[in-house]
Amino acid sequence: VMTVPLYSSLALKKMTDLVAVWDVALSDGVHKIEFEHGTTSGKRVAYVDGKEEIRKEWMFKLVGKETFYVGAAKTKATITIDAIRGFAYEYTLEINGRSLKKYMENRSKTTNTWVLHMVGENFRVVLEKDTMDVWCNGKKEMETAGEFVDDGTETHFSIGNHDCYIKAVSSGKRKEGIIHTLIVDNREIPEIAS
């Protein structure tokens, strides 16, 4: 009697070809990008949040680039495959034409992110400072209302039946610029580091 393992050969093959995993924070959420590179088969597969976005089989050139799109805003992502020595490869992820590190550094300057817990549910709120678009749990909040107040502006919106607004006030310091604060049901929500 021969015992057959529970693992399928496909699952084992997938695990052995997985060469890189990145977490990318966009306005609509944090996306997991996984890349498979079969150096003997020439296979290249990119997954976003477990869903196959691109698949190429029998690529005879083992180095190169693969481009695909991530998230609700269809943000451009490119994986570059470079040979570093012998049969070793380096995999680099670019988002909108920038290295992931540079993209995330710039993103921390152009967005604010808050995570809050209400009524047994987590909410991730993102403000895109350049457009003043507000995202909540991956969806762009369409119902926002801007209002000028004595010390700055307020952008009002709702999460369920909770009244929310993002207050924008000058820091008074040129290097700091404008300070954005999320207020939900009259209480301030601390910002998370991007």
TrEMBL record:
Task: Please report the organism this UniProt entry assigns to the protein.
Answer: Cebus imitator (Panamanian white-faced capuchin)
User: Which InterPro entries would you find in this protein's record?
Assistant: FAIM1, FAIM1_dom_sf
At the highest ranks, the source species' classification is: Eukaryota, Metazoa, Chordata, Craniata, Vertebrata
- Ranges that cross the membrane: none
Q: What Gene Ontology terms for biological process does this UniProt record contain?
A: apoptotic process; negative regulation of extrinsic apoptotic signaling pathway via death domain receptors
Q: Sorted alphabetically, which Pfam families does this protein's record hold?
A: FAIM1
One cellular-component annotation, GO: cytoplasm
User: Would you identify the family this protein belongs to, as annotated?
Assistant: Belongs to the FAIM1 family.
Query: Know the name of this protein?
Result: Fas apoptotic inhibitory molecule 1
Function per UniProt: Plays a role as an inducible effector molecule that mediates Fas resistance produced by surface Ig engagement in B cells.
